[in-house]
């Protein structure tokens, strides 16, 4: 008897053989995000993911993704992930020809400064940062005039121009160590006022601050954390140090996005509130389905400019090249390298 007289089996087999290896690879990635991405939503991602996998290979490109990127980017197309410090360190070692920064502009500039022979692409020109926009190089020069001899410690969330006017950079992951390494009683710490106040509380070093704030973290309040604790008495609260000091004071732990990630991975908490950007909880929930995440999060509109279609387009067109003005590049690099040496 002819079991395949309509030729269905033959048709099916030929369709299977037409599925590109990238499509098959993309389909298999669903397993990584199945706890946080509904199947219906996944169906809208898979074409772009397959195309991005193919384009990365074609152009010898890698994707670096910050912890605030959405799970389909963070878990499915990124090669390198982490907080700003980890992304900077790992960018230095990239051997591929192209780095696509799934993050914001200052992260892309930092990658370019640390590995200048590579092409760095940023998929959206609107992926800025409220902290970076709060201060200019001229502001830093004026502060130096006002406080002569006081070292300038600059958060990496700044433009290369501002870094070039600084003595050393820091991230939220190493701010305390950088400040302590200077062995002074007073520093100019810019532009994040709250980070500076939080580090002053930790180190006892006097901070001359700037009125820059992260538009995501400044919105959290101590009252809301107290309300969540009332609702969930076993709640463990982890806060980013860009939050106001009275919010950090309510938390069980304060640290960079990598610090929060390590805390969750340590298995010390069954129910967690991350006082930070929303995607952080999604990315950790994908890896730790056993942990319950309470989510009164805030979105970063800049990080959210980076989407799968934007990454695909930047790789198709090799657009969004990041360049750093040669007049400031060497001085900006020095400030970052001093930080990495601490
Ligand atoms: P992290 O260095 O902790 O990842 O923070 C970067 C950032 O932009 C936080 O808002
Ligand atoms: Fe900047 Fe805040 Fe967005 Fe981080 S979360 S990129 S500090 S605006």
UniProtKB/TrEMBL annotation:
Please tell me where iminosuccinate binds in this chain.
Answer: 66, 84, 155-157, 172, 240-242, 257
Superkingdom of the organism of origin: Bacteria
Q: Which cofactor does it need?
A: [4Fe-4S] cluster
Task: Supply the name of the protein.
Answer: Quinolinate synthase
Q: Quote the Pfam families the UniProt record gives.
A: NadA
EC number from the UniProt entry: 2.5.1.72
Q: Where in the cell is it found?
A: Cytoplasm
Per UniProt, what is the name of the gene that codes for the protein in this document?
A: nadA
Kindly give the InterPro entries that the UniProt entry links to this protein.
Answer: NadA, NadA_sf, Quinolinate_synth_type2
GO terms for biological process, alphabetical = 'de novo' NAD+ biosynthetic process from L-aspartate
- Binding, [4Fe-4S] cluster: 129, 214, 300
Q: Which PANTHER family match?
A: QUINOLINATE SYNTHASE, CHLOROPLASTIC, QUINOLINATE SYNTHETASE A
GO MF, one annotated term: 4 iron, 4 sulfur cluster binding
Q: Where does this protein act, in terms of pathway?
A: Cofactor biosynthesis; NAD(+) biosynthesis; quinolinate from iminoaspartate: step 1/1
SUPFAM superfamilies in UniProt: NadA-like (SSF142754)
């Amino acid at each position: 008897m002819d079991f395949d007289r309509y030729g269905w089996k033959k048709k099916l087999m030929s369709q299977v053989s037409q599925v590109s290896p990238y499509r098959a690879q993309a389909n298999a990635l669903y397993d990584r995000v199945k706890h946080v991405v509904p199947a219906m939503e996944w169906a809208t991602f898979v074409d772009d993911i397959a195309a991005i996998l193919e384009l990365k290979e074609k152009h010898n490109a890698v994707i670096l993704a910050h912890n605030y990127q959405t799970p389909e980017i963070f878990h499915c197309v990124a090669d390198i992930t982490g907080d700003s410090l980890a992304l900077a360190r790992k960018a230095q070692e990239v051997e591929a020809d192209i780095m696509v920064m799934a993050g914001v502009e200052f992260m892309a500039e930092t990658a370019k400064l640390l590995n200048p022979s590579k092409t760095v692409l940023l998929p959206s020109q609107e992926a800025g940062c409220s902290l970076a926009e709060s201060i200019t190089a001229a502001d830093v020069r004026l502060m130096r005039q006002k406080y002569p001899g006081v070292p300038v410690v600059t958060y990496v969330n700044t433009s290369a121009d501002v870094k070039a006017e600084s003595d050393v950079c820091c991230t939220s992951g190493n701010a305390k160590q950088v400040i302590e390494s200077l062995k002074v009683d007073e520093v100019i710490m810019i532009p994040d006022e709250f980070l500076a106040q939080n580090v002053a509380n930790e180190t006892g070093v006097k901070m001359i601050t700037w009125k820059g704030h992260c538009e995501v973290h400044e919105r959290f309040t101590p009252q809301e954390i107290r309300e969540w604790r009332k609702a969930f008495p076993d709640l463990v609260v982890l806060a980013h140090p860009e939050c106001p000091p009275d919010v950090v004071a309510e938390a069980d732990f304060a640290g960079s996005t990598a610090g929060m990630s390590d805390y969750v991975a340590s298995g010390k908490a069954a129910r967690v509130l991350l006082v930070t950007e929303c995607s952080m909880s999604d990315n950790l929930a994908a890896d730790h389905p056993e942990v319950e995440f309470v989510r009164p999060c805030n979105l970063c509109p800049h990080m959210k400019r980076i989407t799968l279609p934007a990454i695909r387009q930047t790789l198709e067109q090799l657009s969004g090249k990041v360049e750093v003005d040669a007049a400031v590049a060497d001085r900006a690099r020095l400030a970052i390298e001093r930080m990495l040496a601490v």
